[in-house]
Amino acid sequence: MGFWLLCVLLAAVSGARGWGYYGCDEELVGPLYYRSLGASSYYGFFTAPRFARLHGISGWSPRIGDPNPWLQIDLMKKHRIRAVATQGSFNSWDWVTRYMLLYGDRVDSWTPFYQQGHNATFFGNVNESAVVRHDLHYHFTARYIRIVPLAWNPRGKIGLRLGLYGCPYKSDVLYFDGDDAISYRFPRGASRSLWDVFAFSFKTEEKDGLLLHAEGAQGDYVTLELKGAHLLLHMSLGSSPIQPRPGHTTVSAGGVLNDQHWHYVRVDRYGRHTNFTLDGYVQRFILNGDFERLNLDNEVSRAEGVVWLRGALAGWGTALLSTKVRPCFLVPPENH
Ligand SMILES: *[C@@H]1O[C@H](CO)[C@@H](O)[C@H](O)[C@H]1NC(C)=O
Ligand SMILES: *[C@@H]1O[C@H](CO)[C@@H](O)[C@H](O)[C@H]1NC(C)=O
Ligand SMILES: *[C@@H]1O[C@H](CO)[C@@H](O)[C@H](O)[C@H]1NC(C)=O
Asked: CATH code for 26-168?
């Protein structure tokens, strides 16, 4: 079967928070048409979900006794989300003290947002007036957002006004059938990096297959593959006869990644310090070996470095056939 890749343009990573989405901080709920705000139920006309906007004249409340209350926002198309903010219902005793955030591209398939340490609970409000904003420690993309209240003011009921911060998501989605590949060719001279970022999302039904591969003439490589539905990162910054400490490092992440849902992978490397992120869960480690730079250039053929993104079940290092370039997911921020 196939393999989908969501190709993210991570332009010009130049700061610690460089996402290539500078200024991506618009409030997204306020401008929505009222049909975009839905809920499991509501308490009365003036607590319908359409009132769940920050600083609005009331707020959303579910029916008393709703066993599974939720508020749902349809952003109409995919957005990148970086923060969430809540407020109680105007001039009331109704506010939410703890909640969960779910997101997805379809209304029948939700992913919980996990905070650091796999805790999906957000702290909400302490009164009806103050807006409490949480900047998310990883950004996600979704069309639909659900807020699930878990606890609320014991002297009132659930009352919620919601803000979401982010921007429309610009991306290309590419489909691979197991044989295709796309390549990213570095600008000349930019393929010896001290600092780099790889980030992309994928979904597939396959348990095994190569997702990304790049190698240089000096034996450096970076490979991301699925094996038994786990994600493996293999990386080496090289080794040499003089410094024979082997440079190879393998780290695995996740389980059941062939579930046909999008998974977000990100590798941040500075020297040998590496953060390997899968769906918001970060593993930090130090690469083996003595080298600090990833050299993906090929001095033999005098070609620049190339990164290959491949679909499932393909062999690697074989199909160097395309010269068509898509600067799709990788930008070495600086050429040190
Ligand atoms: C998870 O969050 C809740 C509320 O935000 C908190 O009470 C709890 O201690 C947290 N658990 C962990 C393991 O951090
Ligand atoms: C609401 O709570 C915030 C603290 O979160 C506080 O600064 C503010 O004064 C409170 N507002 C009222 C009206 O009590
Ligand atoms: C890894 O994450 C930590 C904590 O967020 C951060 O301080 C560090 O700079 C990151 N390292 C890299 C190489 O991005």
From this structure: 2.60.120.260
